[in-house]
Amino acid sequence: MFLTVSFLTLLLALSITGSPVEVRNSPTILPLTRRLDFSNGTIDLDHNMHGKRVESIPMLFSRGRHIVALDVGNPPTTYNLVVDTGSAVTWIGGGTQYDGTGVNTGRGVKVSYGGGQFSVASFSGTFFVETVTLRDGLTIPNYELAVASTVSNFRFDGILGLAPPDITVNTLTNDPSATYPTFTDWLVTAGAIRQNIVGIFFRPLTGDRNTDAGGLAFGEPDYTKCTSNIVYTDITNTRRSKKYWGIDQRITYGNKNILLRTAGIIDTGSCFIYIASDAYRRYQAATGATFHEQADLLRMTPRQYRALRDLKFYIGNGVFSLTPNAQIWPRSLNSIIPGAENNSIYLIIKSMGTPTGAGLDFIVGWTFMQRFYTVLDRDNRKVGFAMTSFTHATTN
To answer: Which end of the chain is more exposed for a tag (fewer CB within 10 A), N or C?
Structure first.
C-alpha cells in the first residue's frame, strides 16, 4: 500500500539522518534553458483546444519549453526536465533512459497530461529512491523519483512538477486516493530549503533564439530579478482551479471589461494566454483583430497594432499591464508557428473554448510570465507577481 503524505514525510526525514543537507540562507537558483524542437522548420506550440470543452487542466504541451537540468544517481546522469507548474509529479526517463542503481520502491505512477479525452501526453512508471543533485552543487539523498517505463507523445527527458500535491490524486496506481509529496515538499522535508517557495524568472523569447531562458529560485524569491514590490494574492477558492496555482483576477482593455473577476490558473506548461470564449470575443472586437485559421491565432494589421492599448490584469491589489508589444508573438519567430505568415502580427491571446463560469476561465502561460516575476508560495497559499527589466521590453 502506498505511504500517505504524513508517513512518507516522516520516512524521508529519518532517511537523511547521518547525511545532513546544507540549508541555504539565500535562494537556490537553477538556471533555465529554452529548447525549440524544429520539425520541418516549425514547432507545434500547443495542441489546438479551440472549441473543445476542458474537463481538467489542459496541459498544453509546447515544443518550445523551459528546461532545467537535474543530475540523478552516483555517478550522475543529467536529465533535462520541462518546468511545469500545471502538474505535480517529477519524473525522468522520457528521452535519456534511466540506468541508475536506485532502489525500486514498487510503487507505481501513471499521469496523463491534457483535458479529459483530449489527453496529449502521458507516462507510467515506478518510484525509485535516488540521489538528486541540483546544478549549484546541492545534493539531496534518498529522493523518491518517478522513473518512466512507458511514455507517449513526449520528446524530453521528463518533467519537474511544481504544482500543489492535491492533483496527484488518481496518479498513484497502488493507492489512487493518496497524494504524493512534490519536489519542493521533499526539499523542505530534507532541510534543503526553509520555505516552500518557488520564484520563476523567464527571459522573453527573441529572434536570436538564445537558450538562456532565466532561472528558478527555491526557498525564497530572487529579489534581484524584481524591479517592483511583489504583489501577492490568495489561492482561489473556486473548485476547479484551487487544486492548481489558481487565482482570481479580472482583465480590462482600455476602458472595456474583457473578463470579469473569475478564477483560473498559472501554468508554465502553456505558451499563450487563454481566456473564456466570451472574453476572447470581447478582446477580438476591441482590438479589431481577425482570426487567422492557418496559424490558429488572432492577427492584426500594422495600423491596428499602432492603436493597440495595454491589456490590464487586476490581481490582488496590483495591476499588471501587458504592453502592446507584450501582447504579440515575436515577429522574428513567425516562421516557427505552423501556418503563420512571416510578415503578419499575431496576438498571444487565445480562447479557452468555454464561456465564463466554467470554474477555470483563464490560463496564464509563459508569454505573460516572461514579463512578470512569478512567486509560488505553498506555505502561505499565495501567488505573487512583480515587474522585471523585461516588463516594458520591445523585443517582439
So the answer is: N
At 66 the pLDDT is 85
- Number of Cβ within a 10 Å radius of residue 358: 20
| Strand-pair category, 139-152 with 118-133 | antiparallel
Residue type, 395: T
How many CB atoms lie under 10 A from the CB of residue 393?
16
Could you give the CA distance from residue 236 to residue 345 in angstroms, rounded to a whole number? 34
Distance between first and last Cα of the chain = 52
DSSP 22: P
Q: Are strands 256-266 and 362-364 parallel, antiparallel or unpaired?
A: parallel
- Tell me what the mean pLDDT of segment 189-200 comes to: 90
Contact 184, 218 (CB under 8 A): yes
Residues with Cβ within 8 Å of residue 307, at least 6 apart in sequence: 288
Closest residue by Cα to residue 290 from 281, 282, 299, 279: 299
Summarize pLDDT for 277-335 with one digit per residue, the tens: 999 999 999 999 999 999 999 999 999 999 999 999 999 999 999 999 999 999 988 98
Indicate the burial class of 310 (C-beta count within 10 angstroms; 0-12, 13-18, 19 or more): middle
Instruction: Give me 327's grid cell.
Output: 501582447
Distance CA 98, CA 73 (A): 9
Instruction: List the catalytic residues.
Output: 84, 267
Q: Please name every residue paired with 144 in a beta bridge, in sequence order, or none if there are none.
A: 129
Contacts of 346 (CB under 8 A, 6+ apart): 292, 295, 297, 298, 299, 328, 329, 334, 337, 340
How many CA atoms, within 13 angstroms, populate the side-chain half-sphere of residue 143? 31
Please say whether the beta carbons of 223 and 32 come within 8 A. no
pTM of the model: 0.85
Q: DSSP string spanning 111-157? A: EEEEETTEEEEEEEEEEEEEEEE-TTS-EEEEEEEEEEEEEES--SS
